[in-house]
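Notebook entry, cofactor series.
This is the third protein in the set we're modelling with a bound small molecule. For this one the ligand is NDP. I'm keeping the input format identical across the series so the outputs can be compared line by line later. Sequence and SMILES below, as received.
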Amino acid sequence: MIMAVDTTPTRWQSVYRPSLFAGKVALVTGGGSGIGRSIATELGSLGATVVIASRDVDKCNIAAKEMNQYIQQNCSDHGCSVGKVVVGPSTSIRDEDQVNNLIEHIIDTYKALHLLVNNAGGQFVCSAEELSSKGFQAVVNTNLTGTFHVCRAAFENYMRDNGGSIVNITLGNRNGMPNMVHSGAARAGIENMSITLSQEWMESDVRVNCVRPGIVFTESGFENYGPAGDMFLEKILPAMPAKRFATPEEISSAVVWLLSEGASYVTGSVVSVDGGSAFHFLPLIDIEDTSHLPVYGTLPRKAKL
Ligand SMILES: CCCCCCC/C=C/C(=O)SCCNC(=O)CCNC(=O)[C@H](O)C(C)(C)COP(=O)(O)OP(=O)(O)OC[C@H]1O[C@@H](n2cnc3c(N)ncnc32)[C@H](O)[C@@H]1OP(=O)(O)O
Ligand SMILES: NC(=O)C1=CN([C@@H]2O[C@H](COP(=O)(O)OP(=O)(O)OC[C@H]3O[C@@H](n4cnc5c(N)ncnc54)[C@H](OP(=O)(O)O)[C@@H]3O)[C@@H](O)[C@H]2O)C=CC1
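Returned structure with ligand:
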C-alpha cells in the first residue's frame, strides 16, 4: 500500500537537541521545495539562520514564510533559540557568477557560512540512446558542476579560514541508473568529488559528506516524471524492501546528523537513506529476451531455459 505523506509540519518534530545550531549560518540550495525545504525547516527549528536559494525566488519566498511560521511555533513551544529561513538572490547553480554572487551576499549579510547543503538538482527520464549531448550536459552541469561551484565558492569565501560542514545530496546509483545515465554519472561524480574535497580540505576543518536518498515522495519531484512517476508507484514501490518511499524528514535527519558536531569524525562518507534498496534489485528497466545473443564456451542445457 502506498504511504500517504502528510506534509503538515505540526505533526513532525526534530529528534535533535533544541538550539543545536544556534548562531550558525547555513545555505540549502533548492531549499524552497521537497527535500531541501525539509532540511531548511529542521535547521531553522534547531536555531540556525538558513539561506535558501534557487532559480525561482517567488517560490522560495512563499516557502520561507510557511517555514518561519512553523519555526516560530516550534521554538516558542520548546524554548529554543529562534532560527529563521531567509531567501537568497535568484541563483542557477550552473552559473558560476550567480553562485559567487550568492555566496558573497551571504558572507556580507550574515558574516559567516558554517553549513552547506547542496540539494539543488534533478534530471529527466530518457534512454541513453535518445539523449542528446546537450541534454546530458544540462544534467551533469546542474548536478555535478553546480555542486562543485557552490562547494568551491563556500570554501574560498569562508570555510578555508573558519572550517565548516558540507553535505551533498546524490541518489541511489549503486546499480547504475537506467534511463537516467546523465544523473547516475553526475551523482557518482559528486560522491567521488566529495571524497577528494574531504581530503584536500581536511586541514581547514571542513568535512564533506554525501547523503544518498532512495526514492522520496516529494510532490514537485514526482510531477516532473509524468508516466515514469507511475512506473515508480506501480512497479518499483512493491519491489522495495521497505514497501514504501522515504519521507523528506527521513533524509533531513541524516543530513542534520552529518552537519552536526556529533559527526565530527565523519568525512568523505556516503550515507544511504533508502530503506535497504541499494542491496535489493529494483527493476528500473525491463531487459528483453537475450537468448539470441552469442555465448562463449559451453552453456549447460538447463541454464538455457
Ligand atoms: C534506488 C533508485 C532511486 C532512483 C530515484 C530517482 C528518483 C529521483 C527523483 C528526483 O530527483 S526528484 C527531483 C526532480 N526535480 C527535477 O528533476 C527538476 C529539475 N530538472 C530540471 O531543472 C531540468 O529538467 C534539467 C534536467 C536541469 C534540464 O534543464 P534545462 O532547462 O537546461 O533543459 P532544456 O534547456 O530544456 O534542455 C536541454 C537539453 O535537454 C533535453 N531534454 C530536456 N528534457 C528532456 C526530456 N524530458 N527528454 C529528453 N531530452 C530532454 C533538451 O531536449 C535539450 O537538448 P536538445 O534537444 O537541445 O539537444
Ligand atoms: N525525490 C526523490 O525521490 C529523490 C530526489 N533526489 C535529489 O534530491 C534533491 C531534491 O529533490 P526533490 O526535493 O525531490 O525535488 P525538487 O524538484 O522539489 O527539488 C529540486 C530543487 O532544485 C532546485 N534547482 C533545480 N535546478 C536548479 C539550478 N540549476 N539552480 C538552482 N536550483 C536548482 C529547484 O528549484 P528551482 O526550480 O527554483 O531552481 C528545486 O527547489 C535533488 O537533487 C534530487 O535530484 C535524490 C534521490 C531521490
